């Protein structure tokens, strides 16, 4: 049967793992475009970012969950609940492990809870170019002895090694049924949310030592102009005046650099020219505001 004659398939694949296992980098490789924020700071994916990939007759909707870690603050608890919720709703769950780190406390906690997830589970060992071959095989054997993984893949998300084979295998796990999204759509996240994520990434890249996780970005206005361009306004929220000064920088240099870097990628994502205006506001207790959680697609933990 030719590929065109094969019935369409569509389903959800959840990527779970400890912070900085490489989930966002892998998602961007699988989809072939930037749909998830990638940062050296851990815990930067806050909501379920959905990337969409095509492989033959299959449409795979990826749920990129926040890194699973020991939650301390209310925002942490919301992120971890969101991650396990995304895994529970998927057709296949992919556990991504940084092969160089191996099984640490965070991976242990995930392995303990993973048997509760009913979907087939795939083990994905990432960053394989950073570890000796024998150690890699030993790690794969140990993990498969602990849990009945349906498949094991060894990849380098950063370099793309093994990613195409992995995507092809995932396509086979998708149930038969019509595609949920148009063929040319790569993300189910609205453009405004994706633009805010891009700016937040640039903010962390520039200020990863000085700025805490409490900072967030919202796209407050997106207006299409007559000339085909868009005027986009975004607000960066921080929790203290001192942080506001850091974001703005001397003579406004820092916020200008953040805006220029973000604008470039937002133009690519939007496929139109964008005029980006950034504002910084202090909002002391935004981490306890239910409305902020709704905007990020997270449930507000009651305690």
From TrEMBL:
Chain positions covered by the region annotation G4: 126-129
Record bears the keyword Ion transport: no
Main localization of the protein described in the UniProt heading: cytoplasm
Region (G2): 43-47
Protein's membrane topology: Peripheral membrane protein
InterPro entries from the UniProt entry: G_ERA_dom, GTP-bd, GTPase_Era-like, KH_dom-like_a/b, KH_dom_type_2, KH_sf_prok-type, P-loop_NTPase, Small_GTP-bd
Region named G1: 17-24
Subunit structure: Monomer.
Protein name: GTPase Era
Chain's gene name: era
